[in-house]
TrEMBL record:
UniProt GO MF annotations: ATP binding; transmembrane receptor protein tyrosine kinase activity
Annotated protein name in UniProt: Neurotrophic tyrosine kinase, receptor, type 3b
PANTHER family associated with the record: CONTACTIN 5, IG-LIKE DOMAIN-CONTAINING PROTEIN
SMART domains, sorted: IG, IGc2
Residue ranges of domain Ig-like in the record: 191-284
Signal sequence bounds: 1-24
Gene source species: Oncorhynchus tshawytscha
Example GO biological process: cell surface receptor protein tyrosine kinase signaling pathway
GO cellular component terms, A-Z: plasma membrane
The entry's keywords: Disulfide bond, Immunoglobulin domain, Membrane, Signal, Transmembrane, Transmembrane helix
């Protein structure tokens, strides 16, 4: 094939790819909408075949349509959890049924903004937004039906939440259109809640306990305890005291230690909003030693342990005697009802070999566990030739101090003996010399008659 033919084929393929992409975009975008890479905008109703019908509600005999917005948002809740819905929710009439479709959805990776402006909404539920971290909710151009259903929007506007206080919102009261902030409704407010215990509930493992929660208000609230993640067996008993109190009792059977620290929450909610109250469970149980490992050489030598108990148990170590030394210390961290740490030994020797017993005790009981620690093999004899003592826990520094004292005493004794030897030798010789110098001279013929005179013998 010659070069011009190859160039012509490439151009044809290129044009075909462009046409295919254009045709695909045309098929993906409804004919009543304008589409781009980032959004779809529709301002006309169509037959609905390009979009799924997400909410249906039959019209009444009068033919007036109503919008099932809650069901609509339930179907797209997974989208709202990660993205913002920005666009319009358009009505579509089909025979005797009024349906709502989603002809305009644009996605943004910022889920703090939700724009529902200029939508033909008449009511909206706060529950649609309870799992969203909204910094701004745009409702410009929406005219609601005045009533308890939109009371929550009025309250948000008064509190300045989600930027609603900067918007001019309206509701329709019969034939009149009034500002939403001027709407006045009685018996329509956020419910109040109360629980039978204070912020903490103390119990012992195996107990049975009942806690109650009362939600009051108008409209009558729904009340329930959240028990997801609770290990203890539980039962609910609900009572309604008309016109405005809903009570529910929660009974915990054979309370488990695994529920220690669990935050038990009661929720009361109605059309206007939600309130909650919490009780933290404090389950007491006797200590248990979950782990006691053999010594392991790290920066220092560590006997690792894990103890669980509440109230927090007191730990004591035993090795031939109660351990209390600057060379042996306990290091541990607290996590919920767990104590994890090390018995740390500084440069242990063969004198430290033996059994190490950990004792953990609290007001509910005491438990012990023993592990054998081997650090060094003992030599057959000490350097001085004596056998190695079997029950001697003297530290190396203490041995050095004892040897120093012994050497000092030996040196002092030697010096003393040398001094004594010199003194004895010196004074013994002087006595001998003195004795020789004063020995009496033999008598002569000239001195016999002069008594006991002596003559100095010079030697």
């Amino acid at each position: 094939m010659d070069v011009p033919s190859r160039i012509c084929c490439r151009r044809v393929l290129f044009l075909f790819c462009v046409f295919q992409e254009y045709l695909s975009s045309m098929l993906d975008c409804p004919p009543t909408c304008s589409c781009s890479l980032t959004e779809i905008y529709c301002n006309k109703s169509d037959t609905g075949k390009f979009f799924p019908v997400v909410a249906l509600q039959d019209t009444g005999s009068s033919g007036n349509s109503s919008v099932d917005i809650a069901e609509l948002f339930n179907n797209i809740s997974s989208i709202l959890d990660s993205y913002a819905l920005i666009g319009h929710i358009m009505p579509y009439q089909s025979g005797a049924r009024s349906v709502y479709i989603i002809p305009a959805i644009s996605f943004s990776h910022n889920d703090s903004l939700l724009n529902l402006s200029k939508n033909p909404l008449t009511t909206l539920s706060w529950q649609l937004f309870q799992n969203l971290q909204l910094s701004e909710l745009r409702l410009d151009g929406v005219v609601f039906d005045c009533g308890c259903d939109v009371r929550w929007i009025q309250l948000w506007q008064q509190r300045g939440e989600a930027g609603l206080h900067t918007q001019m919102l309206f509701c329709r009261n019969g034939a009149f259109k009034i500002r939403l902030q001027n709407m006045y409704i009685t018996l329509c407010d956020v419910p109040e809640i109360s629980v039978s215990h204070n912020s903490s509930l103390m119990m012992i493992e195996g107990d049975n306990v009942t806690v109650s929660c009362n939600g009051s208000g108008a409209p009558l609230p729904e009340v329930d305890w959240t028990v997801a993640g609770l290990h203890s067996i539980n039962t609910h008993l609900s009572n309604v005291y008309w016109p405005n109190i809903h009570s529910i009792n929660l009974t915990l059977v054979n309370v488990s230690r695994d529920d220690n620290g669990f935050l038990l929450t009661c929720i009361a909610e109605n059309l206007v909003g939600m309130t909650n109250a919490s009780i933290q469970l404090a389950v007491q149980f006797p200590p248990v030693i979950l782990k006691l490992s053999e010594p392991e050489r790290r920066h220092d030598t560590c006997i690792e342990f894990t103890v669980r108990g509440y109230p927090y148990p007191t730990l004591r170590w035993y090795h031939k005697q109660i351990l209390q030394s600057e060379y042996i210390r306990t290091e541990m961290d607290f996590y919920r009802d767990y104590l994890e740490g090390c018995l740390t030994l500084l440069n242990p020797t063969h004198y430290d070999n033996g059994n190490y017993t950990l004792e953990a005790s609290n007001s509910l009981g005491t438990v012990t566990k023993t592990v054998y620690g081997h650090f060094l093999t003992a030599p057959p004899f000490d350097p001085d030739g004596s056998p190695v003592p079997s029950n001697n826990a003297i530290r190396p520094e203490e041995e050095t101090f004892g040897v120093s004292i012994a050497v000092g005493l030996a040196g002092f004794t030697s010096v003393l003996l040398i001094v004594l030897f010199i003194l004895i030798n010196k004074y013994g010789r002087l006595h001998y010399m003195t004795k020789c110098m004063w020995t009496p001279a033999p008598p002569t013929s000239h001195s016999i008659n002069h008594g006991d005179e002596f003559k100095l013998n010079k030697g």
